[in-house]
Amino acid sequence: MPDIKVLAPAGFPAGACPIERVAGFYRFDVPAHHFTRTCSTPGHLLHLVLTGGYILTAGGRRYDIASGDIIHYHEAEEVVWEGDERHVSFYSLVLSAPTLPPLPAERRVFPATPAALCAFEEVARQAQEPPGWRRDALLLAAALALAVEVFPAALAPDLLDSEAGMGWWELESRLRRGGRLRASMKELARLSQQSPAAIARACHKATGLSPMRRLRAARMDLARGLLRYSPLGIGEVAKHLGFQRVHEFTREFTRAQGQAPTEFRLHPGPEG
Length: 272
Description:
Elements: E1 21-30, E2 35-39, E3 44-51, E4 54-58, E5 61-65, E6 69-74, E7 78-83, E8 88-96, E9 109-111, H1 114-127, H2 133-150, H3 163-177, H4 185-192, H5 196-207, H6 211-229, H7 234-240, H8 246-257, H9 261-266
Helix pairs in contact: 1-2, 3-5, 7-8
């Protein structure tokens, strides 16, 4: 009888691959003294700074970005770029991965490992191949290799939020998929089968905010992304975010952004 070693199970569970698709890959060259206040694309966005540096403000934190840094954004976050005399070049990878939890705030900017650098370069190489299923498959494989380095949940769980924090991201992901970012604490408790106190602890552990403040910030981040990048009308954006009335959405957005949704869509500011 041959000696058979099972190297992988006969079938993988549904949803085992966290990345649904590579939504885009770009190289940006930004001149010196550039300044912009904008929002990142919906989904997971990864930047690799190739040359130069600048000051970044995101999620209420300020970072001194340098060459070789990886930056992670999640679900249309507001960002401020403050450039100096340095010219900046960077790769930008957009991933559709709704089940993949974001990195914690303290892990949003970090130096790229040699493996991550190689993975980014492989993504860049495959992105330049002729369009087709082969290019798409190899591009996804390169993106997955990069995700292993950037989102090392199974390899180094201490780099991510605790079990409580992960519970919040799972709950928020369900709310996003269901268009329920206006859920009340009572709804959160019902969906998660946890007490309001447990939900509050999990949310604060993961985001540093209370559940209602986190959901309000998530609504406005997603609103900015949809208004900037999607063809949805104002009413459709409001409905997608869970607002029953457009004027309620307009009031909340204007209070948070300082301009009405229609004005923001017309004059959102330069791209970051």
